[in-house]
Amino acid sequence: MALEAQRKIIHSYPLVRHCELPEDLKNDAVELCVSACDKNSGDNEGAARLIKETLDKKFGAAWHVVVGESFGFEVSHEQNNLLYMFYSGSLAVCAWRCS
Questions:
Q1: Domain containing 65: what range?
Q2: CATH number for the domain including 24?
Q3: Adjacent-strand bridge partners of 50
Q4: pLDDT tens across 36-53, in order?
Q5: What are phi and psi of 84, to 5 degrees?
Q6: Distance of CA 75 to the CA centre of its chain
Q7: What's an example GO cellular component term for this entry (predicted)?
């Protein structure tokens, strides 16, 4: 397969790149991110807002969320409160908690 063709392969499942959440919280957060990105397709700000508000309600305040493509990050976060995942190709979601 040509290199260019390999780059165009898009996965439609959530790909968790890095996670420091307890398993039950991880599953809930991944499902939430997928549904928010599907519901707000093309509106990354709306998806991030929905994810943040839902995480704040379910698991307590001080969650921060970035949704987009082609970004890097370095954040300070509470221990065991970070999720970095990809969904629908190159759409990335980073969610972390800090007070």
A1: 13-97
A2: 3.30.740.10
A3: none
A4: 999 998 899 999 999 999
A5: -130, 115
A6: 14
A7: microtubule
3-state secondary structure of 18: strand
Alpha-carbon distance of 99 to 34, in angstroms, equals 25
Question: Which pair of structure tokens corresponds to residue 16?
Answer: 């968790």
Is residue 48 one of the residues assigned to a domain?
yes
Residue listed under structure tokens 């991110």: 33
DSSP assigned state of 70: S
> Into how many domains does the chain fold?
1
Residue 59 phi/psi, 5-degree rounding, is -125, 15
What whole-number distance in Å separates Cα of residue 23 and Cα of residue 21? Answer: 6
Residue 53 lies in a domain: yes
What's the pTM?
A: 0.83
- Spatial contact of 62 and 36, defined as CB atoms under 8 Å apart: no
